UniProtKB/TrEMBL annotation:
It is an enzyme of class 2 (transferase). GO terms for molecular function: glycosyltransferase activity. Its EC number is 2.4.-.-. Residues 6-135 form the Glycosyltransferase 2-like domain. Keywords: Glycosyltransferase, Transferase. InterPro entries: Glyco_trans_2-like (IPR001173), Nucleotide-diphossugar_trans (IPR029044). It comes from the Bacteria. This is Glycosyltransferase family 2 protein. CDD domains: Glyco_tranf_GTA_type. Gene3D superfamilies: Spore Coat Polysaccharide Biosynthesis Protein SpsA, Chain A.
Length: 268
């Protein structure tokens, strides 16, 4: 594996932004990566853009979903085909700073951590700066239950430490969670971070560590999954009760913390 980084990018109707996303990977100062672009049955020309870049750069691979399965299923296909020691995530409308991988990998190796994330900027559909999401230096399972500021586009984790870990989707989750809801809820990444946090908590030999520098740009799009705050709150409760199996009182405590965390994140 050496220090190869496998970058997981699901694609669904992202033709407008995909070129900029891919170029932000190509421009990385750290060059030992592979980019796994998974098209989730798009109806635009995004897959054509992806294949054009793949023809130019052997590090870029294009995979096709047999049917539309949502971002989690597309990410899982990429993870199954990943060859790297590290796995990183970048959605098809977001971008990285050119030193993103170099800074995080250097930090992970020097500090001996196996899960790393960073601060990031929020931009509008035109790429104009809106705000910065700052992260804590470290976070544990209990802290993560109170609210998640870990941007999926900033995460890098060590496959040798955790193995290949997959997102919940309609094909690999408990039937108590309605697959139709799960496909759209937008919290699959949060559930995965909780899984990793539990693994670390059980050994007490590692932490989820953050880099304070903003190393990525998250594009906030009108009508996106995460833009519906009421649904986000409903699915947060589902995470507590149906995924983490917390009792009602404990769930309520963490939900109130989540609510306060959300107010601070979006209004301060």
């Amino acid at each position: 594996m050496s220090n190869l980084v496998s970058i997981v990018t699901p694609i669904y109707n992202a033709e407008l932004y995909l070129k900029e996303t891919i170029e932000s990977v190509i421009n990385q100062t750290f060059t030992n990566w592979e980019l796994l672009l998974v098209d989730d049955c798009s109806s635009d020309n995004g897959v054509t853009v992806a294949k054009m870049f793949a023809e130019r750069d052997s590090r870029i691979k294009v995979l096709l979903m047999p049917r539309n399965g949502g971002a989690a299923a597309a990410r899982n296909m990429a993870i199954k085909n990943a060859s790297g020691k590290y796995i990183a995530f970048l959605d098809s409308d977001d971008t990285w700073s050119k030193t993103k991988l170099a800074i995080q990998l250097d930090f992970m190796q020097k500090e001996n951590v196996s899960f790393c994330f960073s601060s990031y900027n929020v931009v509008n559909e035109n790429g104009e700066f809106l705000k910065q999401i700052k992260v804590r230096n470290t976070i544990n399972y209990r802290g993560l239950l109170n609210g998640c500021s870990i941007g999926c586009l900033t995460v890098v984790y060590d496959v040798e430490r955790f193995g290949k870990l997959y997102f919940l989707d309609s094909e690999n989750t408990d039937t108590s969670v309605a697959p139709a809801i799960l496909k759209r809820w937008g919290k699959e990444d949060y559930v995965l971070w909780l899984t990793i946090a539990r693994m670390l908590h059980s050994t007490s030999d590692d932490v989820m560590a953050g880099v304070s520098l903003p190393l990525a740009n998250y594009r906030k799009r009108t009508g996106g999954i995460s833009s519906n705050k009421l649904n986000a709150a409903k699915y947060q409760w589902l995470v507590y009760r149906q995924i983490e199996k917390l009792n009602p009182l404990t769930s309520l405590y963490h939900f109130l913390c989540y609510f306060v965390h959300g107010l601070k994140k979006h209004f301060f």
